[in-house]
Amino acid sequence: MLLFEDTIAAQATPPGRGGVGIVRLSGPGTKAIAIGLLGGLPSPRRALLRRFLDGSGEVIDSGLVLYFPGPRSFTGEDVLELHAHGGQIIIDLLLERVLQLGARTARPGEFSQRAFLNGKLDLLQAEAIADVIDSASAQAARSAQRTLQGQFSNRIQSLMKQVTELRVQVEAAMDFPEEEIDVLSDARIAKRIDDLSQLLAQTVSSARTGRLLREGLTVVIAGRTNVGKSTLLNRLSERDSAIVTSIPGTTRDLLRETIQIDGLPLHLVDTAGLRTTSDVVERQGVERAWKAVESADIILLMVDDRAGVGAQEQAALAQVGHGSRVIVVRNKVDLSSALAGLVEGAELATVRISASTGAGLEVLKAQLKATAGYQHNTEGLFLARRRHLEALQRTSTALSSARRQLCAHAPVELVAEHLWDAHRALGEITGEFTSEELLERIFSSFCIGK
Ligand SMILES: Nc1nc2c(ncn2[C@@H]2O[C@H](COP(=O)(O)OP(=O)(O)OP(=O)(O)O)[C@@H](O)[C@H]2O)c(=O)[nH]1
Ligand SMILES: [Mg+2]
Q1: Which of 11, 200, 253, 332: CA 20 to 30 A from 290?
Q2: What pLDDT score was predicted for residue 182?
Q3: What is residue 311's three-state secondary structure?
Q4: Pocket around ligand 1 at a 6 A CB cut-off
Q5: Which alpha helices (H) appear in 219-357, and where do they start and end?
Q6: Does pTM surpass 0.70?
Q7: Of ligand 1's atoms, which has the minimum distance to the CA of residue 251?
Q8: Pocket probe mutation, ligand 1, options 221, 237, 244, max atoms within 8 Å of Cβ
Q9: Is CATH 3.40.50.720 correct for 216-372?
């Protein structure tokens, strides 16, 4: 356990008015501050009604106190929670008083950081605290909760355990060179690496969907003027946010709306219709539209069903590069009298809809999920971050290299080196191996009082 010298304090509830406002303290000075503020040390782990006193013995407020002596506390240190009335002035007075008694204001995420540094949580769990609080859908909250309960950590730990066992086997060969050939030609080692890679692939797949749940995808609606892009934005977001007129070139700016499909957050962007124009304002809009298209995760390329995909759209597609992130949306089926729904046998994923009537919209949503690679069943998913995926990817690369070296009968040190890389990459996820900067970056993105 690390011993911090200073005692930190922060408001744990959001600023503003509320029934209850909570101030939290953690650190070695907590006891003394409790005595100064309450006139005595409350008994541990019990909710007690107490008066909060200022320097001259005057009552600032009264409320519940909870005292958790370390190490059986969230941070591992002595922790005190003061539940006062939730007015900003009261909370400020209370904070002022505990600072006067020797605490200092906590930095964002500092409580969680101490919990991590004192071994109360691993890094995955500490991040999950922020993710539980910030989750944008019930599915995301459930996945973050699973990570907080340690399910993601357990998975990583079990992968690490297996890598360690492999390393022991391989490194034994380094210590007994005469047996090296035997150990390394043992088919069981290759088999173990393969099994491990498979388990890793499953973890990557759940983590990838977990990341989608957390961060969502940017979906850009692009196409010629007047095809119905803004109508679709309004329809999907169930808001009248974009201006719709029959005049081509209505939209000039990028318009954004975030929606959810079965818990998957989609950041929709409506754009100016793609065309060459002499209008200065519109031309800028078209430039912005192109930029949005380039950075999109998914592009809804919209056409009028009666006109179909023409030369202009082909040019746009050529510029976009690969088709896997494009969905062609053939709009206005109410006018073309074609059937709404998925177009079978098309080269690119294609859906016929009517943005005005809403026909085909459910099919379009299903196609969005499919293109995003979003598993419908979010059970067993962990809310993951980019850094987790990157580390898992590095683990996987290291394992494949180890496997390759093994097959090529490379020196055993090389195999061992790659296995060590795999081990380290996994350890970065849980925080076993981390740098100061990484921790700083992670915890500083938390809000105050967490
Ligand atoms: N009949 C029919 N009309 C539609 C449909 N979708 C859009 N429209 C009409 O088409 C016209 C253009 O719609 P918008 O949504 O403004 O088209 P846009 O692609 O955003 O156009 P720009 O912003 O000019 O690029 C409007 O008059 C809409 O009411 C549809 O599915 N069926
Ligand atoms: Mg528009």
Answers
A1: 332
A2: 64
A3: helix
A4: 225-231, 244-246, 248-251, 272-273, 331-332, 334-335, 354-356
A5: 229-237, 280-295, 311-320, 333-336
A6: yes
A7: 23
A8: 244
A9: no
